Amino acid sequence: MGPMNILVVDDEVEITELISLYLKREGFHVQIAHRSEDALQIAAESELDLIILDILLEDMNGIEVCKEIRKHSMVPIIFLSCKSEDNDVILGLTVGGDDYISKPFSPSQLVARVKAQLRRNRFPYINRERQPQQLLSFPHLEIDLSSRSVRQQDRVVSLSTKEFDLLVYLAQTPNTVVKIDHLFQHIWGSESFGDTRTLMVHISNLRKKIEPDPANPTYVITVRGVGYKFNSEIS
What we know:
Radius of gyration: 18 Å
C-alpha cells in the first residue's frame, strides 16, 4: 500500500507549502490546489484519503466546495478557519465537514488531527463485544451496521459518516451515559483538543435527521456536564 493521499486547498501559497512540508515529513503524499476549480477536479479524479480545506477561498467559499465533494465522496474533510469565521465553521460541519482547525495553528497539531481522522476513517469503531448483532432495533428506528443505513419509521435517513458513527456508538450501549471525551476518542480517534463545538454540531445534525422533534430529542439525550446517552425506552 502506497502513502496516503491528502489534498490541501488554500489560496495562500505560504500556508499550503507549510502544511505540505509537515505532511510529507510524515510520509504522506500531498496534492495542492489554490483554486476551488482545481480542488474539485482533483477530488473527482484522484483517490483521496483526506482533504484540508480553507473555508474562505478567493473564487468560491470552501463550504460550497465541500457540498460539491459530498455529492460523490465521503472523504474526511478538515476545514481551516480564522477565529472570526465561527458561523462559517458551524455551517461547514453541517454540510459535511468532519472537523476543523483554527488559524493560526501549530503544524504538529494539524498533523495530529490529520492522523486521528485517517485512523478513524480506516478503522471505524464498532463495539461488537457488547452488542454483536448487525441490526440494532428500537421503537421507530433501525440501524443496520452492515449496510451503514438507518430507517426512521418507514423512511431511510441519510447520515454522514460521523453522524452514523455517533449514532451507532451511543446506540450500542443504550441508556448509558457516554462521556464527551470518550466520544472524541472513539469517533474522531483523538482527544477533544479543548473544543466541543465539532461534537455539538454533529449531534445537532443527527437529531435533525432522526428525531421527530429535534428541539425536544427522545433518542439522543444530553446529560449536562457529562456527555450523551441513547434512550431506548421510547413508547
